[in-house]
Amino acid sequence: MGMGALSRGGLVLLTMEWNGLDLLCLYLPPGTCHLPPAHALYLTERGFMTSGRERALLPDRALLEVIALGVEDAVAAERGGADRLEVVSDMAADGLSPAAGTVAAIRAAVGLPLRVMVRLADGFAAGDVGQLVRTVRELRSAGAEEFVLGFLDDEGAVDLAAVRRVVGELDGCRWTFHRAIDHCADRGVLRGRLVGVPGLDTYLTAGAGGGVDDGLPVLLAEAEVQSGVGGAPRLLVGGGLRLDHVPLLRAAGVDAFHIGSAARPEGWAVPVSVAAVRRWRGALDAVVVGPAAS
User: What residues does CATH 3.20.20.380 cover in the chain?
Assistant: First the structure.
């Protein structure tokens, strides 16, 4: 990737070639305008790339996914620099399917990609698969294009029949297998059984049921294995994730992060904090990845 730079008055104008595109990047240091800290606007032949959907395509940029319960959360997360939203309801049950109307309202309010939860009750059992299918149909009719799901049987193995039944309604939509992987009997076996299931491109995981503190060794090991496997589902790290975890995870090659309570310092009764999301965006963007980090 070729690059050139011109600095004037605190602003930095970068030119670069990436994936066959000639990009013009205006870098705006903190305090120079009312955009998020260290924000950049990328100009291509299609115009400025400012949406989370487009920013997530930029080289070496870590993806930041934020849980949104409604429009206010979604707008704040987008303003703070999130790349994607996980749309859920009822965090007292660790996130259930939202109402179709909520999805439609968020879709109309922001330009970020949405991953919408498919889950009817607390726990990891599929429950009424017919109702799950009806829920997916309602969510898709409301504009949902990406999903989050994951079901275990009574033995802690992936409930492949339920997963395949629900995925069959997605018609190729991309989806995340959520933190059920952290509560399964054998995560390696679970991954193996899900190979080839259409649309699966991400595992949301903390590495352990207790959160990232407990699961960090597993996350680092899986990141190392994944770095040598082309086309493997992406690791999206979340669940007790803190800012001090970021440098080690980024150095290991993890490039996707998921936050919920960390985006709400005052608790789930309060909407997403723009400032909190900006802190995460700044921390992810500040980490140097690859040879330059050594």
Answer: 63-285
Q: How many CA atoms are closer than 13 Å to the CA of 207, on its beta-carbon side? A: 20
- How far apart are alpha carbons 265 and 259 in whole angstroms? 11
Q: In what order do the strands lie in the sheet with 21-28?
A: 3-8, 11-18, 21-28, 39-44, 47-49
Distance, CA of 128 to CA of 130 (rounded, Å):
5
CA distance linking residue 101 with residue 138, whole number of Å: 9
What number does CATH give the domain 63-285? 3.20.20.380
Tokens found for residue 264: 């709400």
| DSSP string of 140-208, one letter each residue | HHTT--EEEE--B-TTSSB-HHHHHHHHTTTTT-EEEE-GGGGGSS-HHHHHHHHTT-TTEEEEEE-SS
Contact 286, 257 (CB under 8 A): no
Assigned token pair, 240? 């007790």
Q: Do 256 and 62 meet the contact criterion of CB atoms below 8 Å apart?
A: yes
Q: Please, which contacts does 66-70 make with residues 24 or more away whose CB atoms are closer than 8 Å?
A: 66/258, 66/259, 66/260, 66/263, 66/272, 66/277, 67/91, 67/95, 67/258, 67/259, 67/260, 67/263, 68/106, 68/272, 69/98, 69/102, 70/102, 70/105, 70/106, 70/271
Separation in Å, CA 243 to CA 178, 223, 255, 257, 287: 21, 18, 14, 10, 11
- Chunked mean pLDDT (size 10), the chain, 294 residues: 49 50 48 38 39 51 97 98 98 97 98 98 97 98 98 98 98 97 98 96 98 98 84 94 96 97 96 98 80 40
Instruction: Give the CA angle between residues 92, 97, 101 to the nearest 5°.
Output: 115
Question: Could you tell me the two tokens for 153?
Answer: 């049987």
